[in-house]
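Please produce the structure of this protein holding zinc ion.
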Amino acid sequence: MALKESEAIVLRTYPMREADLLVTLFTRLEGKVRGVARSAKKSRRRFGGALEPLTYVRVYYDDRERQELVRLDSCDVLESPLANQVGYPRAVALSHVAEVLDELLPDREANDAVFRLALSTLSVLRGSAVWMPITYFELWMTRLMGYLPELTECIVCGRTLNGSRAFFHVLADGLMCADDKRLASSEISAESRAVAAQMFHAPAESFRGGSWPKTRAADLRKFLLHTLQRHIEKKLVTAGMLEKIST
Ligand SMILES: [Zn+2]
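Below is the modeled complex.
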């Protein structure tokens, strides 16, 4: 039997029939793949803790029948998010990463840049400091999916926004100057736009250390979530959960 082998990140699992699990994986080989882990709920031998969401695994699967669902043969844990302490903020942040990947990635389409982004996000998403990793992940995910507009000019008049105030609106695709902003727009600060510019030029690890309270770049994250949600045409469940985290 010719099994496919790939690095993968577990996105979600759902109970299926008595003992089976339906698993959504983001594989490096061919993008988002859905599969069935037979008897995974009964026998922990083959899958152990490998199917916890956001576990980085090496997966072996059978795709012979060209059906929509592959059959998972086995999974080896390369890195588990459970190896580090999982407090509530981190649990919500991990769920957010999984939901965004699951909602935005198309089926069976490899995307190595997003795969590397997911791994680097997981590597900085340790402990309870969640806002830097979340900001970095949302920013780059929006960009890599091709949804991020130019942040330095007004989408209406084209004037540069560097050195002046900038606004965004839930129904608009980019930033607007003070003259062109719509009713009920929100402002995005120059500091947050500077954070975005820095994040485009440096790896996530370089932003570790230093304090990153929830208020820092909150306007940027709001703008990014608006943008992502507009493209998937639905609300992200975890966006509301993140909003409720107080630190
Ligand atoms: Zn303008």
